[in-house]
Design brief:
By secondary structure, this protein is mostly helical. It is about 70% helix and about 0% strand.
């Protein structure tokens, strides 16, 4: 039964193929395609990076400034301006007793602060970028 219906479909397909003519594109086929491509290229959105070259330069300058200051002042044993911070609230909350054995190096301290600042810059930059993108 299946062979009979399959033969019937094959015969029908051959008959349809003989009845149809081979289509050929018109003389201006290529020009029409190129025109459509040109229109589609004009409508694409240009890529804009979330962090501009100016911002990358600013970040690079901060990193270089940090490295230079580390080379010049990195061997001192004091914490610099961190010595001026009042830790009275920590003494009142018994935090000093809990963390008395913990030692934080200057590198970790500065890295944490710089990470926080750069995270803040990145979040605000991306928020502004996506706000502008969603507004248009």
């Amino acid at each position: 039964m299946e062979e009979h219906s399959e033969q019937h479909y094959n015969a029908l397909a051959k008959k349809m193929m003989k009845a149809t003519k081979l289509d050929s594109p018109g003389p201006d086929f290529t020009a029409n395609i190129m025109q459509q491509l040109k229109v589609s290229q004009e409508s694409t959105i240009a890529y804009k990076p979330p962090i501009s070259k100016r911002a990358w330069f600013f970040i690079f300058a901060i990193v270089v400034l940090g490295l230079v200051s580390y080379v010049l002042y990195g061997n001192e044993s004091s914490l610099g301006w961190f010595d001026n911070i009042s830790w009275r609230y920590a003494e009142e909350s018994k935090l000093e007793q809990l963390l008395s054995g913990m030692v934080i190096s200057k590198t970790i301290l500065y890295t944490t602060i710089i990470f926080g600042i750069l995270m803040f810059i990145q979040v605000t930059t991306l928020k502004n970028y996506f706000d502008k993108r969603l507004a248009t």
